[in-house]
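FORM 7B - TANDEM STRUCTURE REPORT

SECTION 1: FIRST PROTEIN
SEQUENCE AND TOKENS:
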Amino acid sequence: MQAPITPGLDRVNQFSAEEHMTMSHHYSGPNFGFPRADARLDLTDLYAFPKPGDVEKSILIMNVHPSSTVIDPEPTTNEPFSPDGLYEIKIDTNGDAVADIAYRVRVSSLPGAMQIATVRRVEGALAAGTDDGGEVVFLEAPVSTGRGAQVTEAGDYRFFAGWRSEAFFFDTLGAVNDLHFTGTDFFSDKDVCSIVLEVPNSALGTKPVGLWARTLHKQSEGWVQVERGARPQQAVFLPGDQKEAYLAGEPADDAPVCRNIRARA
């Protein structure tokens, strides 16, 4: 059922409306830190699955911003998303590892520690670009900063953004300490910030699709990609310069990266 994919390219998760897709990508910055030293730009998870009880829709979830550092653990900022960040879910509909559809989320901060999000959709060649334009799906939707979930609806779409309990579990402190595991789930009391899109399957095309997520940071020269991922934890297997190149790269160019990962495994 899955669309063709170039052999050896282990860089895009493939998903059809009958399947589930997940990943974990925590702490992929330098020294198990964050891109640009900003936890709000750190991609942690990507999920895709059919909407329970509705075969005509799918759920796409992009998690960012771990609530704690991992080395000498301490809380990160309370602000969920970066106003200088762009959060994207990229969708490849024809198996060439180039985005044909993109959902783009920009967040603005308001007085009183509040935030609002605007979601745009873009298709075709523009979906593979580095821009924050596109057709507006949600305009200034509220971001949830507490336990309550503020869900916004627009046509066949639904949207949520805000803090949620961390779903990933792992003995992270043991893993970064030469695999001297402690038997403790580091994430049991941690949170992440979720971007959740409920989309009609008709918006994804008629075939299985490839999915990945990325974050970008606004610079004087424009938007700069600082993080991306699809398969679990590839970046952790790459040394310094190779890791930076991978996080800034595109799935269509990942064949050398995958060879390096296999060689180090």
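SECTION 2: SECOND PROTEIN
SEQUENCE AND TOKENS:
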Amino acid sequence: MEKVYIGSNDGKPPMLDFHGAGDGRLYLNGQVFRVRGINWYGSEDVTTMPEGLAMESASNIVDFIADHGFNAIRILFNMEDWKDNIKVRQESWIVDGERNPELVDANYRDMLRTIIRHASRRQLLVLLACHRLRRSYKDDKHPANWPGTWNGLWFERNTTAAELLSEEKVSLLWSSVASTLCNEWNLFAVDLMNEPHMGFWGSVESTSYSDADWSAGAAKLGNSVLRACARLLIFVEGTAEFKTEWGESFKAARLNGLMARGPVTLINMSKLVMSPHSYGPSLYGADASLWKWFPERFTSADFPHNLPAYWDEHFGFLNEMGIRAPIVVSETGGDMKCCDIPKVLQRPRADALYQETLLRYLDNKDAGFFYFCLNPGSHDTGGVLLDDWVTPDMDKLNLILKSTRASQLVRTQAPPSPPSSPPHPPHPPHASLPSTLRSRSAECDVLSCPFEYHMCPPNERRPSQTGFCDLDADCVGDKEFCRAGTKACPKQTGCCVVAPTCACPPEYTYCRGPSKLHKGPFCDLDKDCVGDNDFCREGTEACPIQRTCCVTTPKAGFRSGE
């Protein structure tokens, strides 16, 4: 794990500055920060607190999370119980008071604060996610029969409840959440609404859905949070389209022209994080009633190689276009076993392949994730913990730890000097122009790179004198499509470079060390690089002395490794 130093452990809370910088990555105090988190559910429904506390202490569960490579926890809650601040339930099947004396007779807000503080002891970050407005939608059994009668929106229209949770009321409640918990240093973000699948990106003509603009709704809720606690990140989930998962799709935000200013307009755009959900076959395989809805992408002959194009279409473009906000997938996971279902899907490792492919995809985009879930009781995904709430599922842990990079918060008396912080975007960036270069911004008299690029940090920039960006000096090239003549900034990694010798992309290794066969700065992947076994592409062939690896010829340059 890459260490991020956050100050001395002298009893004072550390100061954390999380932000995006217009280059598609998340930063903490000037360093790239990669989230590797886990979901811990229960406090959003009728149990009123996270699951597992009847069998283990909250302290021990948090220790397990920290000791197994995670740096953050996504804690779920509901707005109704926050509003009413009820006493949490005390039945023995929900909580063991001897193991968790701090939760005996606690109210709902204190319960959430207690869990957050347990996490802070181990330098774990917390994302607080509004998973539902009400604790129950005619689904009082446990676990709740999600989604019950929920309308798929972030507010209520018509309800028999005593008090309508209107958009205005929910906005005020978010302000209450942010102001109440702002002093908890490790609460770094809020997730405005779980899977608002009935929302739209932009306005619609139908009067029945005229109030369901998620772009405007998320802006209203997010700005309420930022006015109450300016340091928090705002996680915004996607909506849904046919044969996509709830919360997964931002496609309509691009089609409706929202990307130039940002899918959501916040008072501080550097606090915006795009947070899709993405699940594989086990979400469908666990329930026979869903088999008829099995997406074609899971049954396709080119699975799993077809998946990156699907993700690019629905959310992968978010950190490459317009304001280039960071991406953190707030839910993904699965049982690692699905599916062997006759006449539906007979690929016993399909779910594992899905997860491996997605985590690699996110790694290549410097994107983070929260795995679903810690709890063993999830019927369609299972958990990282087994039924005793002590024993880990090592197949899942090995997948997560092997496939991803992550950052680690470290308290130290003498932290090393951090690298220069990227500039905070003061306003949403201008729409990208189709030209190769863009002129100086009329608003702020700074150079603007085209949307395929992002700016070098100011202290490493050598501005041209022409009023236009010099791509060799001012702009870091796009990771996926490096152009001839681009260079990386001196201290940047993972960017496009023109190397004196070829560099294989991170999915490949060298056939025989840096090749002497190529005749230019770019690798000839047919001759120089051994491809990844799991990602063979069309038209690939093995190096002469390799029999199991695949290689391909690049269409345009290469991508350097870190």
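SECTION 3: OBSERVATIONS ON SECOND PROTEIN
The chain has a mean pLDDT of 78.
The chain has three domains: 2-410, 430-498, 500-562.

SECTION 4: SIGNATURE
Preparer initials: ____
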